Amino acid sequence: MNCLSGMLIIKSVISRKRFFKCLRTFFLFSACVLPLQGYSQQQDLLIFGGSGNREFLGCVSCSETSRDSIWNDYSQYGWNNGFGKWNPFGEFKNPFSSYSACNEFSSNGPVLVTRNGKFFGRLTVNEFAQGSVCGISGNEQLCQALKIMCARS
Fold first, then answer.
1. pTM as predicted
2. Strand ranges in the chain using DSSP code E only, listed in sequence order
3. Which domain holds residue 81?
């Protein structure tokens, strides 16, 4: 059983920290980020959102102890920080915000880019948004990981 299928079965039994550690591992190493065309692990994969995608929302590929990491619960960019950029009532995780990764109708979700600006996709569960990780040319495993993360809000 791989990490993702296991998470669907046992997510209510394991601790929140262990769940997100497993999800982070899946997100980064189980065919989510690595198959993105042109991505190499030596580059930081960053998230930007908001109007014109100018607001920094965190680093996907950074260590969970990094202050910029979305995996750091104590960082302002931490996915699980209820007071940070990804809080469930804010504009980037709220299922009703036009800039949210978790809004199935938004076409303005955050973008995944490297530090030098190379675009890798739009971080949104909207499968019809151009460049969406959940779109027809997106990444199924990355999409599933994002949907699980949004459901845990």
1. 0.77
2. 45-49, 55-59, 111-114, 119-122
3. 3-151
